[in-house]
Amino acid sequence: MEGMGKKNQKMGNMSEKMDMKKDHVMMMDGKMEMMKDGKTMPMDKDMTMGNGTEVMKDGMCKMKNGKTMTMKDGDMMDMNGRMSKMPKKKMGKMKM
User: Fold this and answer.
1) Segment 39-75, tens digit of pLDDT
2) What pTM, to 2 d.p., does this model score?
3) CA-CA distance, 53 to 77, in Å (whole number)?
4) Phi-psi region at 19: left, alpha or beta (left = phi > 0; alpha = psi -120 to 50)
5) 76: exposed, middle or buried (C-beta count within 10 Å: 0-12, 13-18, 19+)?
6) 15, 49, 68, 72, 75 from 87: Cα distances, Å
7) Is 75 helix (H, G, I), strand (E, B) or coil?
8) 90 with 33: CB under 8 angstroms?
9) What residues form DSSP beta bridges with 34?
């Protein structure tokens, strides 16, 4: 049971709900979008987040330690570089 605590902590970071009004980037319908000041717009340039993670326009992310991953539909990252999932009920409402 001791190992379960660490696993749950790790999973908790990914499943934390992010405030949809805060600035973030997200993958929607295979395209990267950015929420800035409550407005959604296409992500038109690569960005570096507060923790050093680089996020490319195509959804590829390169962490400061060199590890890479590609964001999938519903993935979100705040400006500090923290990943989370978009609530499913919000995904339908945010289509442009």
Assistant:
1) 999 999 999 999 999 999 999 999 999 999 999 999 9
2) 0.71
3) 10
4) beta
5) buried
6) 10, 22, 24, 14, 10
7) strand
8) no
9) 25, 41
